[in-house]
Amino acid sequence: NWEQTELAKSYSIFEEDGEKVGQQYETDAGPIDILAISSDRKRLLVVELKRGRASDVVVGQILRYMGYVKGEIAEEGQTVEGAIIALEDDQKLRWALAAVPNVSFYRYEVRFKLVKG
User: Fold this and answer.
1) Is 60's pLDDT higher than 90?
2) Alpha-carbon span 16 to 22, nearest angstrom
3) 22 near 33, Cβ under 8 Å?
4) H helices within 13-76, ranges in order?
5) What's the rounded mean pLDDT across residues 83-107?
6) Pairing label, strands 15-16, 19-20
7) Cα-based torsion angle of the residue sequence 19, 103, 58, 10 in order, rounded to the nearest 10 degrees
8) Using CA atoms, how far apart are residues 12 and 3, in angstroms rounded to an integer?
9) At what angle do helices 57-72 and 91-98 cross, to 10 degrees?
10) What sections of the chain are H helices per DSSP?
11) What angle do CA 98, 103, 106 make, to 5 degrees?
12) How far is the C-alpha of 46 from the C-alpha of 39, rounded, in Å?
């Protein structure tokens, strides 16, 4: 559902040789849930998806992925940012993110509708 997110307004799924490869992007640091690139191609975005509540442990995980992207994928002049998406956060996660200005937290909402067939 990438195209339905706020992030899709500024970022596209990362491509290599014209093929979208940025979903479940395999790396030596582990699989990146989503790797995206900004419309102006100056920023790479590492997205970590969590079901339910995200803990402060995810900050180390996303920083590991961001380090990999910075060292192995980013080109000269490109910056690397991170986004954690989860249903809930907690105070420990908020404290950890307060020290990491290039990682953002987004809360997702699930909506569905039953239609009698």
Assistant:
1) yes
2) 9
3) no
4) 57-72
5) 96
6) antiparallel
7) -30
8) 9
9) 40
10) 57-72, 91-98
11) 95
12) 15
Q: What are the tokens at 49?
A: 């998806």
And the tokens for 39?
């419309």
Residue whose structure tokens are 């239609």: 115
- Residues, the chain: 117
Q: How far apart are CA 85 and CA 105, in angstroms?
A: 6
Instruction: Tell me the pLDDT tens digit for each residue of 27-50.
Output: 999 999 999 999 999 999 999 999
Integer CA distances (angstroms), 10 to 60, 75, 80, 91, 110, in order? 25, 19, 14, 28, 22
User: 0.85 exceeded by the pTM?
Assistant: yes
Q: Considering Cα of 30, then 33, then 38, then 43, what sign does the dihedral take?
A: negative
Answer whether 87's CB lies under 8 Å from 108's CB: yes
Kindly provide the residue ranges of all beta strands, DSSP E only, lying in the chain, ordered along the sequence.
11-13, 15-16, 19-20, 23-25, 32-38, 43-49, 79-86, 103-107
